[in-house]
Amino acid sequence: MTERAAVILAAGQGTRMKSPTPKVLHAVGGRALIDHAIDAVQGAGCERIVVVIGKGADAVRTHVAARLGEGAVAVQDPPLGTGHAVLAAKAALAGFEGDVVVTYADGVLPPSAIAPLFELRAAGADLAVLGFETAASGAFGRMVMGEGDALERIVEAKDATSAELALTTCNSGILAAPRGLLFDLLAKVGCDNAKHEYYLTDVVGLARAAGHSVRAAFAPEDAFQAPNSQPELADAEAAFQTRRRLELMEAGVTMTAPQTVFLSWDTKIAGGVVIEPNVIFAPGVTVETGALIRAFSHLEGAVVRSGAIIGPFARLRPGADIGEDAHIGNFVEVKKVKVGKGAKANHLTYLGDGSVGAGANIGAGTIFCNYDGFDKYETHVGEGAFIGSDTALVAPVSVGAGAYTGSGSVITRDVSADALALARGQQVEKPGWAAAFRERKLREKAAKNDR
Q1: pLDDT score at 221
Q2: Three-state DSSP class for residue 34
């Protein structure tokens, strides 16, 4: 197979977002737009990737370099159009002789949409262009097609005739060509237009004039989510969520109110899982078959094993690993704790850093006191242990298998297996104290009112 590379254009200013966050770092499905773009080209087999950014885009540079390395960043300065932006990547692709796809950093494009471009290249097309069909063609450039998949030209909406404006075949701006041909064509692109910019789309006419084969592939309209404003970002998020919910339900996941369930780009939920209303899956969540995620729960960076019950009103934070048939109930928070098979923490509890053994019971109001203001420490509860309500386990500490702690205890030392640990003050009773207290307070109140 011919080697594949990608140039991702990320030099736009994104001023319509009206946000200090660069447009391409805004997220859809918990994933930055630039990462969606990188995922797409990697999924389409591109091993070399160059991201073209604008001058001063330090946050974007840092983000891309952290994922792909500093050598994957090229700078367009000054901004002189899309064709000029692709030329900025030429040096970074020196020595590469395969196919190059040009795409954009501000969209949520699946790899399946890009693949047909490489298929056209393999079938003999010199230049392959990606388009889509839409009735709402608006300001999109129109693709004037010839016989079959032959592309004759692309005409911008402002330059189109009434007949051309009636076309529903629109240009996405994404194309693929051999590296050598792509940069040869770009070197011939002029800027004799209203904006005095070098347009990438001009390579279509130049390629045809030189006798090259130019063909088009089409992807569904909803594959092109490229938000330019906050409302459009919300629309892209809604489209993403709708698509992911449908995919999961078709795979056997039950959602009683799917419109209230929010998923991330990497959420993995097996068929047979039931999800109640108003559940949020932040990035990094895997849920195995047979689990029940009850209403108003929030999961992030967590694993939920088969048959487990989460919620309602539960929070799983990164590192939570909930074992088979375990129960994490209402107002329970779990962070970086492995909970064993069949263990239960059903009410008002914080489990942070450590482990809970199989079959253990964590009483209401239990706290893993894991932080001293500087460092985190671990708490380990053994198999079958019973932690009484309102127990504070001050880490580092371990409770042995089968041990009990008395309700209201503050446990600061390890507890042996099968032992009972009590750590609370002795109860003292003063007969008649409450009645005397009330009588005294009533006298004081009456005296104030008489003044």
Answers
A1: 84
A2: helix
pLDDT tens for 8-33 read 999 987 888 999 999 999 999 999 99
Q: What is the dihedral of CA 126, 224, 84, 16, to 10 degrees?
A: 170
Average pLDDT over residues 247-274: 98
Backbone angles phi, psi at 360, to 5 degrees: -70, 155
Name the residues annotated as catalytic.
Answer: 347
Dihedral sign from CA coordinates of 67, 111, 103, 240: negative
Which of 55, 61, 56, 73 has the alpha carbon at shortest distance from 8? Answer: 73
d(CA 265, CA 289): 19
Q: What angle do CA 436, 438, 439 make, to 5 degrees?
A: 65
pTM value surpassing 0.85: yes
Tell me the backbone φ, ψ of residue 56, rounded to 5 degrees: 80, 5
Model confidence over 197-253: pLDDT tens digits?
A: 898 999 999 999 999 999 999 998 878 878 889 999 999 999 999 999 999 999 999
The continuous run of DSSP H or E covering 349 comes out as strand 344-356
Question: Which residues are within 8 A (CB) of 103 and not within 5 positions of it... i.e. 6 or more apart?
Answer: 6, 7, 8, 9, 37, 40, 41, 109, 114, 174
CA torsion sign, 141 to 144 to 148 to 149?
A: negative
Output the pLDDT for position 40: 95
From CA 257, how far away is CA 279, in angstroms rounded? Answer: 10
CB-based contact 288:270 (threshold 8 Å): yes
For the packed helices 179-186 and 202-209, what is the interaxial angle rounded to 10 degrees? 100
The angle, 0 to 180 degrees and rounded to 10, between the axes of the packed helices 111-122 and 33-43 is: 40
Note if the bond before 227 is cis, omega within 30 degrees. no
- Given a cut of 80, whether residue 390 has pLDDT beyond it is yes
The pLDDT assigned to 195 comes to 77
In the chain, DSSP finds a helix count (H) and a strand count (E) of 9, 33
The yes-or-no verdict on residue 419 having pLDDT over 90 is yes
